[in-house]
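Weekly structure sync, notes
Attendees: PL (lead), two postdocs, one rotation student
Agenda item 3: pending single-chain targets
PL asked that the sequence for the first pending target be pasted directly into the notes so everyone works from the same version. It is reproduced below exactly as submitted, 103 residues in total.
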Amino acid sequence: MANASDGEEKKAGRGARPLRAASVIRVAIEQLSELLSQPAEGVSRCERGEDGVWHLAVEVLELARVPDTMSLLASYEVELDAEGELVGYRRTSRYERGRADRR
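Predicted structure, written out during the meeting:
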């Protein structure tokens, strides 16, 4: 017997509800972490385009240092299709955790 959360995790098919942002974020973090063999720390952007494609910015710990404020993180632009499958990613920036955004 399937539980209620299984429906959210299944791919959106004909007549199915579109994926929710929370499910997309979980999937993006899991898939990117697996591909990079690095832990994702969070998502700083998540939006669905008119074509159903999801665009996210995922923050990844690339190099842990002591003190933690000197650790290197990277921001990745991630794209998932309407079914929640990762179709592309690219690193857009790399920065020390303790540094403010200079934009």
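Discussion points:
- The chain has a mean pLDDT of 86.
- Helices lie at 4-9, 21-36.
Action: rotation student to compare against the earlier draft before next sync.
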